[in-house]
Amino acid sequence: MLLVLGPPSLPIYGSYWFVLLCNYKYIYKSFDTLARWYNTKLLGLHLGPLPTVVACDLDTVKEIFARPEFNGKLDCYISQARAMGVTLGLFFTDSDLWIEQRRFTLRHLRDYGFARRSVLQEENVRQEVMDLLALLNSSKGREDYDVFHDGCALLPQLFCPGIINCLWSVLAGDRFPPEAHKKLRQVADASFHFVKDVEPTGGALVLTPWLRHFGKKGFGSDGLVKGTGYVTGFFR
Questions:
Q1: Which residues contact 59 (CB under 8 A, 6 or more apart)?
Q2: 208 and 111, same structural domain?
């Protein structure tokens, strides 16, 4: 039997308090600190009610990625909220459902020019570049404070509409006009908030999902909840 070393478990949140204590902002650094403290390559701990093992060296991580039994993903409140109450897509699914979603996605994306040369997609990219140059050269664009500030163009906000439009043309066969670019930047900003607030453990709303019944704001997940609501509202 393999003995996995790690911090002790406390009520409700398990070892999560020790993870936050080591490095509240960068959880991956916290895992590294704990692994060095316990002198182990496999860190064992409880994240909320979940028994967890964290691989802390390159060889172990590579081995885990190469073994299918470690491909499972946690079905949690956050993943369901992102997909309108169910578990869908490629990021939050596993097993047969993931295989089905992957095949469906690749098959239909190729129909719209993904991973192959397409005159239509090249024209869409050319049009996005032209719209970007027009924005940079127009005096009206300089008044758009979502894109410009103190005479400087803001990144990545400047590129977000073009990137979303190229993806949208593949997914839906259509693109948004320049008049709708501000809306696309807001969608991108909401997605940034979602990614920024999701840390490797999932945070309080994943470890103790019953907290959502006391209000979805707070608990270190304001950006996550706001970003999820905005993106799902846009697609609806």
A1: none
A2: yes
